[in-house]
User: What shape does this take?
Amino acid sequence: MLALILLIDAAPVQTAAGAMIPENIRAMLDAALASGNDGEVGTIVKYARAADPLSGDAVLAIADKWRADRAAARERVIRQASFLNLWTGRGELGGFVTTGNSETAGGSAVLDATREGLRWRHRFRAQADFQQSLGITTREHYLASYEPNYKIDDRAYVYGAAQYESDRFLGYDDRISLSSGAGYSVLKSSNLQLDLELGPAFRHTGFTDGTIQSSVAGRGSLDFRVRILPGLGLTQTASAYVQRYNSTVSSKSALEAKLLGPLSAQLSYSVQFESMPPADRKTTDTISRAALVYSF
Assistant: This one.
């Protein structure tokens, strides 16, 4: 940015409004606009206004119009897209080591997908962990969830959540959880994000000992993400279903480093706690994973 200040006396370029923007500043601004990076545009505007206050307002106006045009174009694309379009997400493929009800190594696959609309956000997650040794299955965990969100404003939203799980090593063959409630983005920036959700829930569980349990519960969740360095991020997610009988608390801590293009490497540690599992099961399972992540 020193070049921006030192070269301030370069030949000016006149805008449609009549303001004179130094040629070198306009070149840097045009390059930032062409890159499509809002952070770079903001940086150019900041230093350009500090270096040449006379043309600073014109530079800001150009940047504001660019942002408004992008927002309008994005809105048109969203309005015209079908439900099957505009999904983004990530796929994970890796291995794990477990302690608790099963002590073994195996493989896992995870798919996370999100669709951001003008008012609606849709989130889908699927996960499978499976291990078989000498013809004997030692771990078998499946999960699928869908969560639609209706955005009240830029931070507050109303959510619905449906989740199916199966893990006989944790003591249940099938578990269906339904919930709705309120969510709020406490922190929301390019480097830091914290979402909290809270609401009532209903759970139906078929345990491996033949017991069937249906109960009203309370659900809370936390989703925290921070970018530590460029290409290095930390995430912490947690959820809890609290009910009269068997309550569940689960969490996942993950450190992810960007490798090449859409590929990243991830190390994670997950804990799941069941307050009242069947008599022959332990209350806590942990999973350590190393995974290759593909973002799309």
Notes: The chain has two domains: 2-80, 87-295. The radius of gyration is 25 Å.
